[in-house]
Amino acid sequence: MFRRRFWVSLALSIPVLIFSPSLQAWLGYTAPEFPGSAWITPVLSVVVFLYGGVPFLQMAVPEIRNHKPGMMTLISLAIVVAFVYSLAALAIPEGKTFFWELVTLIDVMLLGHWMEMRSVRQASSALDELARLMPDTAERVLPDGGTEEVAVHSLKTGDLVLVRPGASVPADGEVEQGESDVNEAMITGESKPVSKQPGDSVIAGTINGDGSLRVRVTATGDETALAGIMRLVQEAQQSKSRTQLLADRAAGWLFYIALAVAALTAILWTVAIGFDVRVIERVATVLVIACPHALGLAIPLVVAITTSIGAKNGILVRDRLALEQARDIDVVIFDKTGTLTKGEFGVVGVKTAGDDANWDDDAALALAAAVEGDSEHTIARGIRQSAAERALALPEVADFEAIKGRGVRAMHDGRAVHLGGPRLLEMLDLAPPEGLRQFAEGANEKGQTVVYLVRDGQALAAFALADVIRPESRAAVRKLHDMGVEVAMLTGDSEAVARAVAEELGIDAYFAEVLPEHKDQKVAQLQREGRRVAMVGDGVNDAPALTRADVGIAIGSGTDVAVESAGIILVKSNPLDAVKVIGLSRASYRKMRQNLAWATGYNVIALPLAAGILAPVGILLSPAVGAAVMSASTVIVALNAQLLRRADVSAAA
Fold this sequence. Notes:
Among the domains are: 2-118 and 241-305 and 585-652, no CATH class; 343-468, Calcium-transporting ATPase, cytoplasmic domain N. The strands form 4 sheets. A 7-stranded mixed beta sheet has the order 10-22-21-20-11-18-19, with helices on both faces. A 6-stranded antiparallel beta sheet has the order 2-1-3-9-4-7, with no helix packed on it. A 6-stranded antiparallel beta sheet has the order 12-17-16-15-14-13, with helices on both faces. Helix 19 (495-505) links the parallel strand 18 (486-490) and strand 19. Helix 9 (246-273) runs antiparallel to helix 10. By secondary structure, the chain is of the alpha+beta class.
């Protein structure tokens, strides 16, 4: 709406400016004259007022109704005064109209609010993204053992459903038959697929692995864990209070100041010379010059430039208030999985045994990756990825065989090679050498998964696997500390995993085994203590906390719901960009303050002059000069905002 009205009003304003008597006298030119040319300026000004100015009057009504005059009230007052006075001046000999000031004022206000509104998007689709996790249909198991496809909303507590490999779990329930690994990362934040056996519970919306499960439904609809998360997101969205912009507060004060100066001007001039057209002219000049040309652009220009700078630095700003509030953040909470870590398994430690000089970490990892070549297990992918990162050449293996619940087996150079965890050693009736045993104990204390490489009945190597920490995470924590910001971590992982990651990164506090609703509560708890909290996360389980936080920052590689629940998105999935968010916020805030100081400060000089404080000594600010001062303030504000492009976001942090 603002964009459309701006372009139409701008097109209509050009003839107004060209045929304006004031501008012709000021710039020393003569516009073409023809029958009716004298009416071009007033007629088109009326059209611009009715088309481009009325929206501001409509938006001023709530401010007046709530007794909180602000930007809209001040803009409305200025354009109404300029409009009414200019119409009246047409009937007054030697009357000075404000038509060109009126249309340019409306144009600038429309442009500023178009830029402002474009920079604001509400996180409105988070609940839709959550709902998409739920499948539309489910396979209900019939008494005769067959299945029928039914709508998920028709499921009832006690129904038995079949969850095929790769399918979404349709309702909360308990496994009655089958074994499988279920990916619960989107709900619990657990990076490793969770093994499910009869008696284990499953959560609606999670993804089944390679096995087939028969699940007895225990909760449906609004009673599921996913529905609970959706309620938390909705409550957090509704609980966030509306923050007034600095410009609105400044405009509110300027409104009262302008009225007071205008009233004082009318009284003093009436006492001095009596009431005549000159008094009306002085009052109108005061109110028009007080109009926030510059004030209207002070914030939107900085917001637009900040948004552009953020995009170039991998930061997308969806909610301008989130970026403004980031400057006051004193604690940043990171989700672990997918944020500080990559959300995927990798080898974080290797220990070899044996006296062979050619047998080292790389040789062991290469053989393990070759043995796992045909496996799609999460651990297998982690081993292969780690070998690829080291650019290792893999030996040839043959006769791959998956040993259910134990590991894998393959032949290498005519010798059997096994790879698996402790249950593999139990099956082979092996005890690891002392060095590998100590290595495994240390890894287990850190919550890492350990697998063994066995050849010819001997354990030759052990591998510790864990969710791989992003290389940028350590630097991000250090820089936040340098800025005086504390760092905390929330995770659904175990205490051991959380402690190990926190110690490695130097994190101040961590919260382990945290369910989604507890993540939201942790943020709320810190806020009740008076802390300003930023939450950085990527998963559906982070959505309530992202929305509840003063500033929600989503890692771009995360799920769509996390992105929709956050005010700021890190498109490069780089935790260091969370540092840039605070730096950019502080830099833009400085520019906002400078612009607001100038946009309101020039009134300290201009308003008294417009009122005629120096009239006794022959200095009286004319409407034309007043308009020039007002325009100059707008140019200065615009140039100062452009200087933000030179700011070093990292240095600003």
